Amino acid sequence: METVKQPSGGPWVAIDCGAIPEGLPESELFGYQKGAFTGAFSMKIGKFEAAKDGTLLMDEISNLPVSSQGKILRTLQEKKICRLGSTKPLNVDIRLLVACNKDLKTVVESGVFREDLFYRLNEFTISVPPLRERKKDIPYLAKRFLDITNIALHKSVKGFSESALRALLAYSWPGNVRQFRSIIRRAVLLADDLITDKHLEIHQDSSFNRLTTSLIQKMRWEEQSLKTIVKKRSEALEREIILSAIEYTGGNKAQAARLLQIDYKTIHTKIKKLAIS
Asked: Is 126 inside a domain boundary?
């Protein structure tokens, strides 16, 4: 749990819903009384109670089990919780923020997120475009992450070469800002003075271009319409990209879906349609 004081004096509490151990979301969110279950040797305060009169951020809320979503909805409506093993309600007036790396409305349509909770949370939405759609932010973020990493690693790397900045701007960043930060950190570890494109080691886009070129070279120029040719080659390219993402994540289709920024149901549908084994 991360807690800092807000200007208003209330606490700021953050929890990653994707990191909650299976079967434990309710004890993490609402806490429990001593003896509530086997292993509950002492009372524990949950995240809602810890954020009382402050703010609770629930990151990756789409990973929360449906069984727990109803209790969150009731908590928001009544502004009360009960610790596991207790019947005594506790007042918890909080500001709730949620974050998700998917379109939550699409997750609702797939049946893994409650529609009533979605509309309860959807009072005000801030959509942050992926990094590849706001490349003007890349120079600022690169400098920011460089400064942070220099302090953390006790280094004094001065900046980026022109070739490094060109490489950062040309890359598509499938892993978004988290991947960007990791790439900068690794580059700082490798560099002594300036970070060059050799320190970045990002070659996915060139691989993508090679794949596209290869598909074009394999085309059989028969009497086909442009529309038919493009459709066939698009499906072949889509298949290779999905297969590459699955291999990159070690066969984890959920991670591959997040990497490609599609939902879990969609990647399963495409795997079946494109005959990916």
From this structure: no
